[in-house]
Amino acid sequence: MRKYVSVLIAASMIGAVQAEIPESIAGTVVDHYSDRSDFVEYPVTSCHEEQLPVYDRRGYKPSGASIMGGIILGGILGKALTGDNKGVKGGAVLGGLTAAQSRSPRIIGYRILEICSEVMKYKRINVTEYSHSTISFTINNVSYNAEFVKEGF
After folding, report:
1. Per-residue pLDDT reduced to its tens digit, 28-85
2. Looking at the 3D structure of the chain, how many domains does it have?
3. 47 with 66, same domain?
4. Sign of CA pseudo-dihedral 143, 24, 149, 33
5. Co-location of 75 and 149 in the same domain
6. For residue 75, is it within any domain?
7. pLDDT value at position 14?
8. Given this model, what pLDDT does residue 2 score?
9. Is the domain of 52 the same as that of 121?
C-alpha cells in the first residue's frame, strides 16, 4: 500500500509540474531614455584696445645759463614787486630754483595697444541618457509588466 501511495503522490507532482510549463510566451523589452540639459564650460579670447601715452624722451635738463637767467629774472621781479633789496634776494632764489627744476616729459601722442585675455563661457547642451527598461510579456493569456535597469548603463 505504501508503494501505491508513493507512486500516486509522484504522479500528481509530475502532473502539477507539467501544468506550470507555459504553452506560449510572448513579450517585448523597451528601453526608456530621459533628456536633461548640461552646461559645458569653454574658453573664449576677449580683446579690447587701450590708448597708451607716448612721451617725449628728451627730458629737459637745465643748463648753468638757464639757471643764471632764472636768478636774474627772479631778482628783477622781486625788486619790482617789493621795492626793496630783500625782495631781490627772495626773487633770485625762487627764480633760480624754478629754472633748475627738471620738467616732466610731455605726451607727444598715443599708441593703441590690444589687450587680450581668456574668458570662460558656458553653453547649454542637451543630453539623452538611459533611464530604465520595461518588459511586457504574456504567459497563458495573462499579461505581466516589470521595470528593471540593465547592467552597465
Report:
1. 999 999 999 999 999 999 999 999 998 876 656 667 777 788 788 888 887 788 877 7
2. 2
3. no
4. negative
5. no
6. yes
7. 43
8. 36
9. yes
Domain assignment of residue 54, given as a range: 25-59+115-153
pLDDT digits (tens, 9 = 90+) for 113-125: 999 999 999 999 9
Kindly state whether residue 70 falls inside one of the protein's structural domains: yes
Residue with cell 625762487: 94
Helix (H, G, I), strand (E, B) or coil at 142: strand
Each as own residue / partner, the long-range contacts of residues 103-107 (CB below 8 Å, 24 or more positions apart, any chain) are 103/59, 103/60, 105/55, 105/56, 105/57, 105/59, 106/55, 106/56, 107/53, 107/54, 107/55, 107/56
Query: What average pLDDT is seen over the chain?
Result: 79
Burial class (CB within 10 angstroms; exposed 0-12, middle 13-18, buried 19+) of 94: middle
DSSP code, position 14: H
Nearby residues of 114 by Cβ (< 8 Å), 6 or more positions away: 47, 48, 49
